[in-house]
Fold this sequence. Notes:
This protein is α+β, with helices and mostly antiparallel strands. It has two domains: about 5-80, Glutaredoxin (3-Layer(aba) Sandwich); about 90-200, Glutathione S-transferase Yfyf (Class Pi), Chain A, domain 2, CATH 1.20.1050.10. It contains nine helices and four strands. Helix 1 crosses helix 7, helix 5 (about 110-120) crosses helix 6 and helix 7 (about 165-175) packs across helix 8 (about 185-195). The radius of gyration is 17 Å and the shape is globular. The relative contact order is 0.13. The mean pLDDT is about 95. It comes from Pseudomonas vancouverensis. InterPro entries: Glutathione-S-Trfase_C-like, Glutathione-S-Trfase_C_sf, Glutathione_S-Trfase, Glutathione_S-Trfase_N, GST_C, Thioredoxin-like_sf. It holds the Pfam family GST_N. This is Glutathione S-transferase.
Amino acid sequence: MEHTLKILGKASSINVRKVLWTCEELGIAYEREDWGSGFASTHSPEFLRLNPNAQVPVIIDEAGVLWESNTICRYLVGKHHHHDLLPGEPAARARVEQWMDWQATELNPSWSYAFMSLVRKDPEYQDAHRLVVGARGWNQKMAILEHQLATTGAYVAGPRFTLADIVIGLSVNRWLMTPIDRPDYPAVDEYFQRLAQRPGFLKHGCNGLP
Length: 210
């Protein structure tokens, strides 16, 4: 009997979209339920029993419950044996995972102030100086990506598309769609066009959502 993958999280969430794009690359079916701001509350006792952090996405399958978007993506790729997206050989796998971790721990925090100010228009993020500093810091992180892409000439971890490109590709889309002054990063621009040839990116990444 085939078990159904259930994804909890609204489709506009950047972290939910990582999982949806991964499913698209894997060609696997899933059911999705809307949870998060504007939908069912992630602070409800029902949701907190699944993820005490009150954040989406959460997945449920025959193995149980899992949260943290990058971990979910790794799990799904491993479960379905797609070593093209996440190699089995330790060094090659580590090169992919280091960029996934960089996205979560370095790039993600860098966009926080500018995104909340300019896209979410949160009144608590409207300090002009902090906005300038935040945008500068975001661009500095993107300069690291520019150098890496100029070095590989193709994708983040090397010549082939991997799971690192799913999580970072969505971050690139957010950077391009947020109205800040951006340096000219030609390797990032070419990378974005490369990703735009993938149906999963068009559906879940380059889809009008930052």
